[in-house]
Fold this sequence. Notes:
The protein is 49% helix and 23% strand.
Amino acid sequence: MKRERQQAIxxxxxxxxxxxxxxxxxxxxxxxxxxxxxxxxxxxKDMGLVKTLSEQGQYRxxxxxxxxxxxxxxxxxxxxxxxxxxSVDHAGNTVxxxxxxxxxxxxxxxxxxxxxxxxxxxxxGDDTIFVLVRxxxxxxxxxxxxxxxxxxQA
Length: 154
C-alpha cells in the first residue's frame, strides 16, 4: 500500500502543481487513497520531497534529482544549499543563512540532519535560518563551509 501510494504521489506532483500537504491529501483521496495528514507528512519526508519554484512562479512539491546512491545528510544539505540558499554570513557565534522565500525550513531540516558537532541549535523562519554554534571560530568555519555552497549557486 505504501509503495503504491508513494508512486501515486510521484505521478501527482509531476502532473499537477501541488503546493500543500492538504492539497496532496485531497488529490490522493480523489484517486482512492484514504490517508491522514500525518501519513502524507511522513510520505513527503520519506520521499525527500522539497518545495521548488515552478515556471509559473508558484511553489510546488518536487522530487530532487535522483543520484546513483542515496545521498548522505551532508550531500542533501549541500544540494539544497546550492539550490535554495542566497547568502551565508556570521556574527559572533551565530551563522545566518538567507534562502529563497519559503525555503528556510527545508534547508534547516537538512542542516539539523547533517548533525554538525559545533551546532548548538537552529531556528528557521520563512527565508532566514539562525544557527547558534559554540564559538566565534566555529561560526566562521561553518559560514565558510556553507557559504561555498551558496556562492556556487549565485
